[in-house]
Amino acid sequence: SYELTQPPSVSVSPGQTARITCSGDALPKKYAYWYQQKSGQAPVLVIYEDSKRPSGIPERFSGSSSGTMATLTISGAQVEDEADYYCYSTDSSGNRHVVFGGGTKLTVL
Amino acid sequence: QITLKESGPTLVKPTQTLTLTCTFSGFSLSTSGVGVGWIRQPPGKALEWLALIYWDDDKRYSPSLKSRLTITKDTSKNQVVLTMTNMDPVDTATYYCAHSRPADYDILTGYYNGYYFDYWGQGTLVTVSS
Predict the structure, then answer these.
(1) What is d(CA B73, CA B77) in angstroms, rounded to the nearest whole number?
(2) pLDDT per residue over B70-119, tens digit each?
(3) In Å, how far is B53's CA from the nearest CA of chain A?
(4) Which terminus of chain A has a lower count of CB atoms within 10 Å, N or C?
(5) Phi and psi at residue B29, to the nearest 5°
């Protein structure tokens, strides 16, 4: 079955740029999405269609995708950005099966 | 305003069947492009997509759990129901339902370029134990 691969953890100091990657064979043809999940809370969409930011998401969150890799970038990471981040995309066999990456724990300290 | 809420048992015994209901408001499952999905998360582990039902009654399941899952919708009641058979302690998790919307529309192919979850319920913890 289709898989999206993320690093288990990323660590940055406050104010630094954090980059979280997601690799998948279908990403050249399928959009990537990113969800933020803070402890004990439901996930929140922070990037959709590779690089678009939903209303209410701070501008420091941005997304990009090139080839088989999508990247979530948090420019000037804040302590409150510490969370688990999951990439998400559509299965390569069509548009209606979906898959989540394994998640990346972002530590900001 | 779109809201979703999961309901169902908090404790089930091994081998039993789990039935979860997602009750939603702020949208209709008869609207083109719309779907409702189920996602679960074992304690301390990653999100796992389980099932999706679309406005046209198309149903999709995680390949690894397909044989155990059934998803249905009741458009008049604004509800989606997920059943999972033969529950096991490894199925202990928080179960979320979420609203799915289409990505942009590809004029050349006549299809949406995928679907994604934009609104989530609060989740419900289901424990499997004898």
Answers:
(1) 9
(2) 999 999 999 999 999 999 999 999 999 999 999 988 898 888 889 999 99
(3) 9
(4) C
(5) -80, 5
Q: How confident is the model at residue A97 (pLDDT cuts 50, 70, 90)?
A: confident
Q: Give the residue-averaged pLDDT of A67-73.
A: 97
- SS3 at position B67: helix
The pLDDT-based confidence of A36 (bands split at 50, 70, 90) is very high
Our CA-based measurement puts residue A45 at a distance from the nearest CA of chain B, in whole angstroms, of 6
The two structure tokens encoding residue A97 = 């099966």
Of A31, A95, A103, the CB nearest to B47: A103
- Report CB contact under 8 Å: B47, A100: yes
Residue labelled with tokens 């981040």 = A85
Residues of chain A found within 8 Å of residue B113, distances taken between Cβ atoms: 30-31, 49, 95
Query: What is the count of residue pairs from A and B with beta carbons less than 8 Å apart?
Result: 68
- From the list A101, A99, A72, A98, the residue with the least C-alpha distance to A86 is A101
Token digits for B123? 């989740």
Q: What percent of chain B has pLDDT over 70?
A: 100
pLDDT at res. A21:
98
Q: What does the alpha-carbon distance between residue A107 and residue A52 come to, in Å, rounded to a whole number? A: 24
Strands of the sheet with B18-25, listed across from one edge: B3-7, B18-25, B79-84, B69-74
